[in-house]
TrEMBL record:
Keywords for the protein's UniProt record, in alphabetical order: ATP-binding, DNA-binding, Nucleotide-binding, Transcription, Transcription regulation
Record field: transmembrane: none
Protein name (Swiss-Prot/TrEMBL): Transcriptional regulator
UniProt-listed SUPFAM superfamilies: Homeodomain-like, P-loop containing nucleoside triphosphate hydrolases, PYP-like sensor domain (PAS domain)
CDD domains on file: AAA, PAS
Source organism superkingdom: Bacteria
Gene3D superfamilies (UniProt xref): 1.10.8.60, 3.30.450.40, Homeodomain-like (1.10.10.60), P-loop containing nucleotide triphosphate hydrolases (3.40.50.300), PAS domain (3.30.450.20)
Transcription found in the keyword field: yes
GO molecular function: ATP binding; sequence-specific DNA binding
Entries under NCBIfam families matching the protein: sensory_box (TIGR00229)
Record GO biological process: regulation of DNA-templated transcription
Length: 603
């Protein structure tokens, strides 16, 4: 369909009006020489194509109007078969422009001498008038196309809005609802025919759209609670103002999603980012580790709380993840939090979440806590012994009632989680000292799982060394094929106070430093070699018949020398602890125990 064909009905009315007023016939032709409109003798030919149309072709090509005072004798007519005997008497043919493009012609035609004389007498004014009519027709084409474009855009927008999963509500500047998509119908359980055109306050006064309309400030992912049609809704809302080119607020558009679905989406993202760790990822063939793995496999299918006990670096979180992966909750999230790494003032809000305005700096709209995020899955509480008595009481309530309240809220949120806790301390001893609740201890230790330290499963050391050698060789793009005999012997006899974590760090350290194809003694961390230097000292004293120094004295002397070498600054103490193969917390404790000072070294 040509551009003029879109307005053929309006074009016909214009042609008839002109013909009546000017007492001449009118013909409108498109670029394909098809009559779009016509009056008088050509009225019945509307829709058909001109057989010759020499004048029209010329005007379409040049974009200039032509006045034929005597049809058949104009120079353009000379090539026409009807030259000198044309049934037209005279004509004015004017181009119809739209955006610099000629889209057709409009002609004023005289079919008899009277019409011709009338046209000749008023030629200039008729040319001007027919030019105005060409512009008028052009404007109608532009309006039609703009309207069609708007209709297409509106349909596309409607299709887009209906295709999104979120509920969409839009209001105009008077607060009337202009859009209400299918997802909104499902979410609020009401048909849009009852909603469109109504005031937002009539149905959704609790929704914060009027707030955005008033102050022009949108928001993202705000939690909204309200009751609608006998249903309690917990939604996540994002709202943005609709502004004109002059920055005037013309309305608001908001999207809504059920909070539980938002959690589910977060779970999916979280699970994609997490590696699926199973019992096969726990390396070891020793009887002690095999017994623990077998015990963990048996309890994985249960929903009972698990307490994993073991020294630092034994792989407690690895066991927790493996238990989760083997459970019926494997398709749900595994959320871990280190209770010892977060200040007590922040741990409560991290665990339980908070409402908007609960405290200074609280995020607008509030925030769900780790317990909510783990709903349906597993919550791993590492270093549970570091939790304050106040939070222990709140955690006990969660275990008993299976519900939580966010900080600053009185709204109860039901939860379904399995808790796996871990500690490197003796909780029973902490209970006796009043630092851990006895009732919580019994709730947590329904199924205790004790992870053996690496020194108690030395047959696993070669397997671990080889596994991490291969792993870090690939990561660091090095071809390290194994350990020398001396390096392997040292690793096999080293006590590994940091357990598997220390072994991993030692292998990574060695591969970084090693320049040959085998890890040598020189590439191993200094603390491992220094350990055997201390042992040799003890053995030498014993072999020479001298008095054996107490281990505490040796330990005190070793710490003093390390601090003398690395310094008493925070960095120096950290380096000294690393060289001695102990934690930073341990070296602080030992400094206090042996009353060591930087001035004298020892007191």
């Amino acid at each position: 369909m040509s551009r003029l064909q879109q307005v053929r009905e309006k074009g016909q009315k214009v042609a008839e009006a002109i013909a009546t007023v000017l007492q001449a016939e009118v013909e409108i032709i498109d670029t394909s020489l098809v009559r779009v409109a016509g009056t008088g003798r050509v009225h019945n030919d509307v829709g058909s194509k001109l057989l010759r149309g020499f004048i029209n072709k010329y005007v379409l090509k040049t974009g200039k109007h032509v006045f034929i005072s005597e049809a058949g004798f104009h120079e353009i007519c000379q090539s026409c078969p009807l030259a000198g005997k044309c049934f037209y008497k005279a004509s004015i043919v004017y181009p119809i422009y739209l955006e610099q493009e000629v889209i057709g012609t409009i002609s004023l035609i005289a079919f008899d001498d009277k019409q011709r004389q009338n046209m000749l007498a008023r030629a200039d004014s008729l040319i001007e008038f027919i030019g105005r009519m060409a512009d008028f027709i052009s404007s109608k084409v532009a309006e039609t196309e703009l309207l069609e474009e708007k209709i297409v855009m509106a349909n596309q927008l409607e299709a887009l809005i209906n295709s999104v999963h979120e509920g969409v509500i839009a209001i105009d500047r008077q607060g009337r609802i202009t859009h209400f998509n299918r997802s909104a119908e499902k979410l609020f359980r009401i048909k849009k025919s009852y909603i469109l055109g109504t005031d937002i306050k009539q149905h959704f006064e609790a929704l914060p759209l009027l707030e955005v309309l008033r102050d022009g400030k949108g928001f993202t992912s705000r939690e909204v609670y309200f009751k609608f049609n006998q249903q309690n809704l917990h939604l996540v809302c994002t709202a943005k103002p609709i502004k004109s080119s002059e920055e005037k607020i013309m309305g608001v558009v908001a999207t809504f999603r059920d909070f539980s679905e938002t959690q589910k989406f977060a779970y999916e993202i979280l699970s994609q980012q997490q590696h699926a760790l199973t019992f096969d990822n726990i390396i070891g063939r020793s009887p002690s580790i095999q017994r623990v793995k077998e015990q963990a496999r048996k309890i994985a299918g249960s929903n009972s709380t698990v307490l994993i006990v073991g020294e630092s670096g034994t792989g407690k979180e690895l066991f927790a993840r493996a238990i989760h992966a083997a459970s019926t909750r494997a398709h749900k999230p595994f959320v871990a939090i280190n209770c010892g790494a977060i200040p007590e003032t922040l741990l409560e809000s991290e665990l339980f979440g908070y409402e908007e305005g609960a405290f200074t700096g609280a995020k607008r709209g509030g925030k769900p806590g780790k317990i909510e995020l783990a709903n349906g899955g597993t919550l791993f509480l590492d270093e549970i012994s570091n939790m304050s008595l106040y939070l222990q009481a709140k955690l006990l309530r969660v275990l008993q009632e299976r519900q939580i309240e966010r900080v600053g809220s009185t709204r109860v949120i039901p939860i379904d989680i399995r808790i796996v806790a871990a500690t490197n301390q003796d909780l029973q001893e902490l209970v006796q000292k009043g630092r851990f609740r006895e009732d919580l201890f019994y709730r947590l230790s329904v199924i205790p799982l004790i992870i053996p330290p690496l020194r108690e499963r030395r047959e696993d050391i070669p397997l671990l060394l080889d596994y991490y050698r291969q792993r870090y060789s690939k990561l660091l793009l090095k071809e390290v094929e194994g350990f020398t005999r001396e390096a392997l012997d040292l690793c096999l006899n080293y006590p590994w106070p940091g357990n598997v974590r220390e072994l991993i760090n030692a292998v990574e350290y060695a591969i970084n430093l090693e320049e040959t194809n085998y890890i040598t003694l020189d590439s191993l961390p200094p603390r491992m070699k220094e350990h055997f230097s201390k042992e040799n000292l003890i053995n030498t004293i014993s072999e020479n018949g001298g008095s054996v120094a107490p281990l505490q004295e040796l330990e005190k002397e070793a710490i003093r020398r390390a601090l003398h070498q690395f310094g008493w600054s925070e960095k120096g103490k950290k380096q000294a602890a690393a060289a001695l193969g102990i934690s930073r917390a341990t070296i602080y404790r030992k400094i206090q125990k042996y009353q060591l000072h930087p001035e004298t070294g020892a007191k």
